[in-house]
Write a structure and sequence with these properties.
TIM Barrel; 7-stranded parallel sheet; 9 strands; alpha/beta; globular; 8 helices; 288 residues
């Protein structure tokens, strides 16, 4: 009986190690080069150390980088992304690349086209998103830093590349959804035609409403009507905006079963203090 128990315990322990090894523990360090260039340092136990080493010491295995088309300060563009991708891969970490398809932040309230795409036709816009995505993926692959995951748009519950790809409110029409899906498919084509099955790159569609099952179903039901072929559902979960942990649990389970997809929380945060330590206002600043 003792031998059986020990054997079972060994199997459980082995499975735990395997599952832990496969579990994604990620950080977004898109601003690291800017911090480095402005003299920022990181320490562990009072000793200065490369932040990527600190992360790997604490079992981080994935890094997420956003990429902007032509950012005003030059950070998070393709050149900076290539530098960061090399550092990430050299550290033995996996890479998730987050295409915003904008020159700045893209989210449910802001999906502004890159300035160079502002006044072009819809057909030219489709061609541009395809060519740009293809160019980025090719550049990364050429230096052997191909992303392990590619996120097509950032928090795109209301679409992207507005107004052509906008789908919320008065834009929630079959015509707008058709255009939005065509843009997504062109971006996905820009990824898929530059990788092989051996590359094992996964594609992610990311929306913001981690704890909102009704909104999540509305978006993905529509998306699946148009046969969009992608690998993983990505969610943001900020508890002061997007529900309780129980809401998140229900939504992730429902989406995984309803669409037969893996689900990843690609953005989350929670305030560690209500105190004020600088002159920048906190998103959450009081106990209510």
């Amino acid at each position: 009986m003792k031998r059986i128990f020990i054997a079972l315990f060994s199997i459980i322990l082995s499975l735990s190690v395997i599952l832990y090894a496969d579990f994604i523990r990620g950080v977004d360090i898109s601003r690291l080069l800017l911090i480095d260039d402005n003299g920022g340092i990181y320490t562990k136990n009072g000793i200065q150390k490369d932040v990527l080493e600190i992360f790997t010491d604490h079992h981080i295995n994935y890094v997420r980088l956003r990429i902007w088309h032509t950012p005003a300060d030059g950070y998070c563009d393709l050149n900076k992304t290539l530098i960061m991708a090399q550092r990430i891969k050299n550290a033995g970490l996996k890479l998730m690349l987050d295409f915003h398809y904008s020159d700045t932040w893209a989210d449910p309230g802001h999906q502004t086209k890159p300035a160079v795409w502002e006044n072009i036709s819809f057909q030219a816009l489709k061609d541009s998103i395809h060519r740009y995505t293809s160019h980025v993926i090719t550049a990364l692959k050429s230096q052997n830093t191909l992303p392990d995951m590619v996120q097509i748009g950032n928090e795109i519950r209301c679409g992207m590349l507005w107004d052509e790809g906008r789908v919320c409110g008065q834009f929630d029409t079959p015509e707008q959804w058709t255009q939005f899906v065509e843009l997504i498919k062109e971006a996905l084509r820009g990824v898929n035609e530059n990788v092989t099955p051996d590359d094992t790159v996964k594609t992610v569609i990311h929306i913001d409403c981690g704890g909102n099952n009704l909104a999540s179903r509305w978006f993905f039901d529509n998306l699946f009507l148009y046969d969009v072929d992608f690998d993983i559902i990505g969610l943001s979960y900020y508890p002061w905006w997007q529900g309780t942990l129980s809401d998140l649990e229900y939504n992730t389970h429902d989406l995984a079963q309803r669409y037969d997809k893996d689900v990843i929380i690609v953005e989350t945060a929670y305030p560690w203090t209500l105190d004020w330590y600088d002159n920048t206002h906190n998103i959450v600043g009081d106990s209510s």
